[in-house]
Amino acid sequence: DVGMVFQAPLLLKWRRILDNVLLPAELLGIPMPQAKARGRDLLALVGLRGYEEKYPYELSGGMQQRAAIARALVHDPKLVLMDEPFGALDALTREKMNLELLRIWKESGKTIVFVTHGISEAVFLGTRVVVFTAGPARMADNFEIELPHPRTLDMKTHERFGIYARRIYKLLGME
User: Fold this and answer.
1) Looking at the predicted structure, is the pLDDT value of residue 123 above 90?
2) How many angstroms separate the CA atoms of 59 and 57, rounded?
3) Are 140 and 132 in contact (CB under 8 A)?
């Protein structure tokens, strides 16, 4: 049972935000009263309470991606796969979304596999980092990130943060 968040939000432009969030529930045959209640709760969780009846074009890129996260959670998956979901966002919005994702992760209790090319992002978000080589890809390393929670942006100046980042740079031959 998997939820998926892609690089782009992939919201259907003719559907309102709540209806976009409910799409997996519709496809899986989850009863609508139950799904709508969960969808509204998830929109609140991702900071979009009050946007249920808006269309995607009425939301910023970061807001659309938060709606996509809610959509990935609506059927209560055990695992959420995120394929560079913040790659198209500007740096400030990306930082905000990283903080939001950590909050959502903590509140939802879901296992999240997050794919990123951002070394700092991997260390900041991760409890475990798996580093792959360039194609053909093979696993170069797999290690735990032992930094305290809750994570804060000033943690990026923490000595251990730098040690983890340098380890990844070295694995990628960028030292």
Assistant:
1) yes
2) 5
3) yes
